[in-house]
Amino acid sequence: MPLLLRPLTRHEHLAFVAARRSASHTQVPSWGEVKPDWTAESLGWFDEEGRLLGAGLVLYRPLPRLKKYLAYLPEGPLIDWHAPDLAERWLAPLVAHLRRKGAFSVRMGPPVVARRWSPDAVKAAIADPAAHRLRDVEPTFHDPRAAEIEERLRDAGWRRSEPGGEEGFAAGQPRYVCQVPLAGRSLDDVHRGLNQQWRRNIKKAEKAGVKIVRGGTEDLPVFHELYRETAERDRFVPRPLPYFQRMWTALTAEHPDRMRLYLAHHDGEVLAAATMLTVGEHVWYSYGASTSRRREVQASTAMQWRMIADAHEAGAAVYDFRGITDTLEESDHLLGLLRFKVGAGGEAVEYLGEWDLPVNRLLHRALHLYMARR
Predict the structure, then answer these.
(1) How many Cα atoms sit within 13 Å of 87 on the Cβ side?
(2) How confident is the model over 145-165, as pLDDT tens digits?
(3) From CA 159, how far away is CA 253, in angstroms rounded?
(4) CB 90 within 8 Å of CB 79
């Protein structure tokens, strides 16, 4: 029988997340407050005895002049994705609820790992002239259950979202990420997992006198100035300062250590800054920024190492560098970012990606064409 699905209170949702070892920062109640253009709703799946078995944060984006919505569950929901009756017992109640709410299309991102590549496997793939994409390289780990989930989703009418933006990145949340495993390892073990360039640059920063400190909300304008410089240098559109101020207020109100800000100082100047997010045993490097000045002192590398060390000290099982490209072409400017993250001992990780279900096919198609033109 399908599970009962109903809205959750904030307390119920947070309690469910707190009982899990890992949940995405985009699946906690406060994330809805970070996205003012969306309306958020917490949903829960209950069995016949009233036990809460799953939860999800849904973001609703309205169509102009229509009471119709795109319903989006980023990196969620938090349900039993391996259940053989996934579509009937778990997803059918969700779709029925979203249809009643006026959703014309549903997008979700199953938090399910399909494949992993060790740092050595990624390095070998980059060095192999015959390898063009990570997806074409033999993985170090492969979960055959991921293919079963894909089959169940397709049978139920879901289709994988087409990538948007930079090649290799998903249209919403990234399909490919880089994660440094921390569970069961000492900090010395993690340090030994760094490549020579990382270790050398950390020593350079120490010798140059780079100091890493934690900042507060009053330091967000300093971070944002560096972030704007980074956006201009790397040719992407930056988010405005109020976005980060809103993020800080919402996330730290929910949990005082949900969001951190790190600043790298050298000779009285902030050369790099970054935000870090934590939910359970999962830590994410969220946004990074740096200046082009005095890059020889390696402030960004020193800051990343401090963040990894702090995540380890806090008991994190994984330090997540977030999105990477799956291209291995030397001509791709994102390959340097992949090298940097893997150099920290990070594994390349492929998730199932994001999936769409058109509830109203005409409106769903119209939105797809609009986004493609953008």
Answers:
(1) 12
(2) 999 999 999 999 999 987 544
(3) 36
(4) yes
pLDDT of 85 over the 80 cut: yes
What beta strand segments (E) does the chain contain? 4-7, 39-46, 52-62, 69-73, 103-108, 113-117, 141-142, 159-160, 176-181, 211-215, 259-266, 269-279, 282-290, 318-323, 347-351, 355-358
Class of domain 4-109+356-373: alpha beta
Q: Are 133 and 328 in contact, with CB atoms under 8 Å apart?
A: yes
In the sheet with 4-7, reading across from the earlier edge strand, the strands are 4-7, 39-46, 52-62, 69-73, 103-108, 355-358, 159-160
Q: Which of 11, 16, 19, 35 is nearest to 250 (CA)?
A: 35
The type of residue at 250 is A
Each domain of the chain, given as residue ranges in start order, spans 4-109+356-373, 183-316
Q: How confident is the model at residue 1 (pLDDT cuts 50, 70, 90)?
A: confident
Token couple for 127: 């060095």
pLDDT of 169 over the 90 cut: no
Q: Taking a C-beta distance cutoff of 8 angstroms, is the pair 180, 319 a contact?
A: yes
Closest listed residue to residue 234, CA positions, set 134, 333, 160? 333
Superfamily of domain covering 183-316: Gcn5-related N-acetyltransferase (GNAT) (3.40.630.30)
d(CA 76, CA 153): 14
Rounded mean pLDDT of 274-302?
96
The tens digit of pLDDT for each residue in 105-134 reads: 999 999 999 999 999 999 999 999 999 999
CA distance 278 to 280: 6
Question: How sure is the predictor about 365, in pLDDT bands with cuts at 50, 70 and 90?
Answer: confident
User: Does the pLDDT value for residue 333 go beyond 90?
Assistant: no
Pairing of strands 259-266, 269-279: antiparallel
Percentage with pLDDT > 70 across the chain: 95
Amino acid at 199: R
Task: Return the C-alpha torsion angle 22, 24, 25, 28, nearest 10.
Answer: -90
